[in-house]
Amino acid sequence: MCIGLYPVTPKNYADFNSRWGVYASEVLAHAGLPFKSLNANDPAGELPLVSILLLPTNLRLNDTERRLIMQFVEQGGTLIALGGTSGLEEVFACRDGGKVEEGWIGPSPQPRQGAGGASAPGTAAPIMEILRRGQALHAFGGRRLAVLSAQARELAVWLAPESWNEERGWDGAVAEGAAVVINDYGRGRAVLVAADVMQSIVRLQQGRPVHVDAPPAAAAELNDGILKVDDGIVLDFARDREIIGGVPIFARPMADEWRELVIRAILWGAQEAGLDIPLLWYWPDFVPAVGQISHDSDGNNPEMAQALLNLMQSLGIPSTWCIQYPGGYAPEFYQRLHQLGSEVALHFDARSGSIGTNWLEADLRRQWEWLREMSNLPVISNKNHYLRWEGLTEFFLWLERLGIKSDQTKGPTKIGVGGYPFGGSHPWFPLEEQTLRFIDVLEVPHQTWELVSRWPIAVGQVMVDKALENGGVAHFLFHPVVVGRSAAVANALSGIVAYGRERGMPWWTNAAIQDWERRRREVRLCGEHPPLSAGGGPLVWKVEAGRELKRAAILFFTGKTARSRQSGAIGASGEWVQAFGFPARLLVTDLVPGEVKQLS
Length: 600
Ligand SMILES: [Zn+2]
Fold this sequence. Notes:
This protein is α/β, with parallel strands linked by helices.
């Protein structure tokens, strides 16, 4: 095996914040990386099986664990640690400098160069690139570091929050200790991201519990008397927003960037160690990102719906129609959508307040059953009317109990919270934070409602650009009732579809996105050494699918000291592409259950 994921249990919490470390399995699974969750009873005992060890959060390790992990690195292993040193100060050449509840990390102004060793200057460029991309990453939890040795390289620092200002942003911000450090140790190497990456991702995506309106901010009158998802935003309205097309929005998918920092650290470690490592790309055919258009049927006007369907047909793409109770379209219309490859989804109404349209699980069930009966179609995804929301993840549990597989409610109701109010363009599975159980509902966030009439076109284009940059989903909502009344909005819809398409982005339904993601989660990338009886030899990578996955794109990153490969192995063929800042060979193949393919 290749990547070992260290277990996080109450027994090894360094403090209460360690609990969010469990989200690492979701991050690695979505990244498409091969990993093994180490045995919770004897994790250090399994170190001989792994080449890269991930400590997903700051942990309290016992003496034996610490000794074995130090030995592992000394002997050539790669250690990636998140959230703090976990008591391994010597390996990182860093001292713990105290707790950070909330803060920002930015690229080190002058990354200190190593005095020698395996990490020649410049090899950490792909890690620096993601740190520089956004200037400052918003962290929830973490530890400040003091670098102890000139050999350790400081890649990022904590930025003093009060040194941000409106005119110059983070330029010239005061550093408050190291945040990301790499160090050579023995024959191995270590990366420490001292921000609590997993807690940050969970907090950004899931927000804070919604019980009252959020206070108003510029271009975001959130105090509207309606409880909705964007009352739970944890991002900073001053430091985390940017002006795009004249309006302030959350323009950066911050959770995506945290995820990518972890992926890049792992790939860097593999490259430095001379390891080959495969990764299942997010989308088929190595397309850079996927787009989604969804429609909420507010008003249920059949003529408006037909006009929008005509437009979508002329664009030649399927879309997701979220239908609001009590409906109004003819049953044949739903059938027609289905025949055309579009999706009929639910637009749960917990806003109107009449009987059957309140924030109640029973009302969700009733509306869902109504739509299934009315349309005579399966209904597997949902978006809430007016993005209604209460609590933290309770609504996901309602969906899970009904077997609704995907939700798309996370998004903005106000201009000033457009973009990525929940941190990402990537789909994600929620974590029930009380029990630390994953909820089987895939969230596919959206970034805007009508372009032109609500957000400038420029915002839509930036959202497509960001999805392309991060490999995520660009998801735009267009109501039939608004498109039907405004030629400008109809043009904006056509324009954004063309903009994405010209850049290689296919447009999918929510149903297709969730189906693809679930199928790819059943792909197993497995590395094994040939048995000694067969002569032994280097790790051989194989891929196996639990369900069919057509045109799966497997990237094969080869270590610095790439070995010559056996002929016929597919890792040795394929074109070279660039992903996450590293070169990789690309293999596109149909995966079929029961068939094992050799990669190296
Ligand atoms: Zn609505």
